[in-house]
Design a protein that fits this description.
This protein is α+β, with helices and mostly antiparallel strands and 415 residues long. It has eleven helices and 18 strands. A hairpin with a 6-residue loop joins strand 15 and strand 16. Helix 5 runs parallel beside helix 10.
């Protein structure tokens, strides 16, 4: 029976765990541990004493926990059984990870279903050798970083997929905004993974979310939606929208007010209701207290998200929701009065000269009832209140016309 006189690390440099091949020692054996490792003594299947860097003689005073598990001789030459495992404390660099399968979710800004995948790299180190051996490795002879990634690939994939889904949906961040802030999102995801890996005695030193990608067909769809939305905003730009954009830019650049986004104002507006920076938005989105238990209606009346208070507050939902084809901004009644400020509108006016509100295009088949003030279909009587329309009533605004009038004195409609 071989008895080891010197116990030291002699395994491969990339091994996270390496077991010393000899299992019989005596009280004169020397244990040598370098600065990059820790040594764990296992007796009868129990993790006993843990040694850091240094040189020690395996005498009774130096291994008190093992002494309680077996009868260690004090004479020096009688052998006793014990397994020694060396645990590598060096940071394991550039360990690649990736989601197993795509995440099917709907982009909150463009309402397009996409199949999202993510990948990146990470650096880890063994923080608690005893916990790492008991919960992650077991008492196997050797364990390396490749086996570690294989063991934790499913955990990383499932949790990262869950985090990305919640950040996009609850944080209302589009695919483009996610890709523009990979560094910030990496830090938030790392905070969540730290809690999980700590249970296995592992510390994540660095976590990098390198890419969030979708298939080419999905990317093409969301790119086209982005272009259409941008085009609609440009074509339908009003004084009010320009003012809202200025307010948004003012908030985005003022860290004391909203925390700042440091990115596109679109991302700020979509996430502004939940917090200031992208980091705050992501953290709030992953907070269990902020995750809704039921799916809210897509267009709930009166529940728009606002940024700020008072006259400069911004209705996020109404500002960024893409306009449907063939619709116009409701800015004035067909009677020639601006709905926002009440100012009179000149004939064929497209914008209010007082407040800049865009004028609604009147339906030529409707008329405003002088009795109830509601817009109804043309006819002899009002469908709402039964008011009888006079023959000398303007078909556009309902105003009374003088005898022989060829134009309405109120709205300028040709009779």
């Amino acid at each position: 029976m071989a008895i080891a006189e010197v116990i030291k690390f002699e395994g491969p440099q990339d091994a996270l765990v390496w077991k010393f091949p000899v299992e019989d020692f005596n009280a004169t054996s020397q244990l040598i541990v370098d600065e990059t490792h820790e040594a764990l003594l296992v007796v009868n299947g129990n993790a006993a004493d843990l040694f850091t860097a240094g040189r020690r003689t395996l005498s009774v005073p130096n291994i008190p926990l093992a002494r309680k598990l077996i009868e260690i001789p004090t004479g020096g030459n009688s052998p006793f059984p014990c397994k020694v495992f060396f645990i590598n404390k060096v940071h394991q660099m550039d360990m690649l990870w990736g989601t197993q399968g795509p995440i099917a979710l709907e982009d909150p800004l463009y309402d397009i279903f996409m199949h999202v995948m993510a990948n990146g790299s990470m650096t880890i180190s063994v923080e608690n050798s005893r916990k790492f051996m008991l919960k992650a490795v077991g008492f196997r002879d050797r364990f390396d970083s490749t086996e570690l990634i294989s063991k934790f690939r499913g955990i990383i994939s499932s949790h990262v997929k869950d985090y990305i889904s919640k950040i996009m949906i609850n944080g209302k961040l589009s695919y483009f905004m996610m890709n523009a802030h990979l560094f910030e999102l990496s830090g938030v995801i790392k905070e969540k993974l730290d809690i999980i890996f700590e249970e296995y005695g592992i510390k994540i030193q660095y976590f990098n979310l390198e890419t969030i990608e979708v298939p080419e067909a999905d990317y093409q769809k969301v790119s086209e939606a982005k272009e259409r939305r941008t085009s609609r905003m440009i074509e339908g730009y009003t004084w009010q929208e320009e003012r809202q954009m200025m307010i948004a830019e003012k908030f985005a650049g003022n860290e004391g007010t909203m925390g700042g986004v440091g990115g596109a104002v679109g991302g700020f507006m979509m996430g502004g209701a939940m917090g200031g920076s992208i980091v705050e938005i992501a953290r709030n989105a992953l907070d269990p207290e902020n995750i809704p238990s039921a799916k809210p209606p897509k267009d709930a009346a009166g529940t728009g998200s606002h940024v700020g208070n008072g006259p400069d507050s911004i209705d996020v939902n109404s500002f960024f929701k893409p306009k449907e084809e063939g619709t116009e901004t409701t800015g004035a009644t067909p009677s020639g009065k601006c709905l926002k400020c009440g100012a009179d509108l000149p004939e064929n006016a497209k914008f209010c000269l007082s407040c800049g509100e865009k004028v609604q295009v009147a339906d030529q088949n409707t008329v405003v009832c002088p009795g109830c003030g509601k817009t109804v279909q043309k006819g002899k009587f009002c469908l709402e209140c039964g008011y009888k329309f006079a023959s000398n009533t303007c078909p556009k605004c309902g105003a009374t016309l003088p005898e022989g009038a060829k134009f309405c004195l109120e709205c300028g409609e040709k009779i």
